[in-house]
């Protein structure tokens, strides 16, 4: 899956400040609960029969398929915007569009809070093509 940069996402400092202050995200969502997000990440979708963890792995860092992104430690607002875009049909993926279709704003906020709170295995790709 190709990860797309979303222009509406906040930068690291703004995201960390909003997270620390308990403020809402740039996605216009309510405050999310990492605990509720963890529960939601383990609920099978009626549309796909899959959970978030089934595909992205424990803590979002052990994807089932190498083409699936690691989302553990990703910026909260990035996850929220991505899930909203899948839900609204402005971003498409065969599984994710179905998976996100029935999510409420609160569920998206909770999932974003949970995955953002996980240890990060994200890496910068600078220099990868220079080899």
Structural commentary:
The protein has a domain at 31-120: Cytochrome Bc1 Complex, Chain D, domain 2. By secondary structure, the chain is an all-alpha fold. It has helices spanning 12-21, 34-41, 52-56, 76-88, 96-101, 105-116. It has 6 helices and no strands. Helix 2 packs across helix 6 (105-116) and helix 4 (76-88) runs antiparallel to helix 6. The chain starts with 11 loop residues before the first helix and ends in a 15-residue tail after the last helix. 41% of the residues lie in helices and 0% in strands.
CATH architecture of the domain at 31-120: Orthogonal Bundle
Let me know the average pLDDT.
83
Indicate the radius of gyration in whole angstroms.
Answer: 14 Å
Q: From the helix content, strand content and strand pairing, which structural class follows? A: mainly alpha
Report strand %: under 5%
Helix residue percentage? 40-55%
First and last CA, distance = 23 Å
What name is given to the CATH topology of the domain at 31-120?
Cytochrome Bc1 Complex, Chain D, domain 2
CATH superfamily of the domain at 31-120: Cytochrome c-like domain
Count of distinct strands: 0
**How would you describe the shape?**
globular
